[in-house]
Amino acid sequence: MANLSRTSENKLRVAIVGLGPIGKGAAEALDAGMDGLVLAAVSAQNPEKHHNWLGRLKSPPAVLPIEQLSGVADIVIECAPAKLLRSIVAPFLAEGKTAIVLSAGALLENDDLIEIARQNGGQIVVPTGALIGLDAVTAAAVGEIHSVRMVTRKPVRGLAGAPYLVENNIDIETIKQPLKIFDGTAREAAKGFPANLNVAVALSLAGIGPDRTRLEIWADPALTRNVHRVEVESDSARFSMSIENVPSENPRTGRITALSVIALLRKQFAPLRVGT
Questions:
Q1: Span 8-39, pLDDT tens digits
Q2: Could you tell me the pTM of the whole model?
Q3: Would residue 228 show up in a list of annotated catalytic residues for this protein?
Q4: Fold designation for 12-129+256-267
């Protein structure tokens, strides 16, 4: 992360936007105590909805609108609707601060944020999230990756309502067998499934980009978990990865995604870091 220096007396201040399973998980972990970090503020579309939950924290943070967060925090965790990405992230990057981004798909339509970060000494961090093996993909990309293909299988309720399904009149609500509903690039998937396939965009950013990373999406009425399989061919290794994620209370998000954010935060000042 950018500019993560602090004195023994001070801690880096963290703001969280979005209080779904990921945001709440990160907030509770920070509130319980984390070396070098403190929860300074949160922002949510409906703060009153979370009033009781916030009151149960040991040190309730300030509840602020998005535009005030960069003035009170050094790091922002974005786990909000993708349409809010720019308004959340840009002020932090412009001030040379760090933005942890969960809506990775939205980065493809706001790629100038990377240049803003570069010019100001800020940093965009995309957590591993619901996928495994991004370290291996990142390492392989230092050499030459020939191909990356990902097959995602999800329960019906985890895909219902996706723009791609609506636009193409694909009905998955009553299917009895697995149905392939998409075959294309990670960039195309990010547009058609903005709440579902951030994981595919993260994979593409780690490897050969969103236009060369291929993706299949299947709706499977028999599944209760989100299943991802990735196959990579490169000049350094051929490898495959498979993971079955238990959904959180939000069926579009796996429980491990929130844990990935917490693990990322804990790494920042840990005496031992494992992984690239």
A1: 458 999 999 999 999 999 999 999 999 999 99
A2: 0.90
A3: yes
A4: Rossmann fold (3.40.50)
